[in-house]
């Protein structure tokens, strides 16, 4: 991946594989399909696919992961919320929009962890006119949980003067 913040490819092999995206995150390729990844920033990344020719992946234990709450709604001005990631092993946070950051309770930015952890979710100001939605993926080696963050946009307000008439005739003279 050269000078980009997204990458997708068609995987045509029926064997399961692990895709290492080059930014510390990975994804299980469960067979034929199109797979994509969004990087936190534009850059050069080396993507590696490890095809499971000896069926090691089928021995991967089921490591469930949950995020509580599963959805957050913020006003246009943004703000903070706290979430709980519950997992018994390593996990990563993937597909984080630029307007969202995750911090541990000490204040350090995180993109993954080990075991269960409380995190602070920081949502920036939405200066756009439209509502925006981010679907952030939390992944263990064998499972995924999605945190949906919805943020209101800016709604222009009118004074109402445009809708009223005064009944006064105005003549413009040059």
Total beta-strand segments: 14
**Whole-Å distance between the termini?**
64 Å
- Radius of gyration of CA atoms, rounded to a whole number: 23 Å
Low-confidence region ranges: none
Mean pLDDT: 85
Strand order, main sheet: write it out: 7-14-13-9-11
Structural class: mainly beta
Taken from the alpha-carbon principal axes, the silhouette is globular
Number of helices, where a helix is a run of at least 4 consecutive DSSP H or I residues = 0
SSE pattern: EEEEEEEEEEEEEE
Largest sheet: 5 strands, mixed
Q: Helix share of residues?
A: under 10%
What fraction of the residues are assigned to beta strands by DSSP? over 45%
Please provide a written account of the structure:
With 174 residues, this protein is mainly β. It contains no helices and 14 strands. The mean pLDDT is 85.
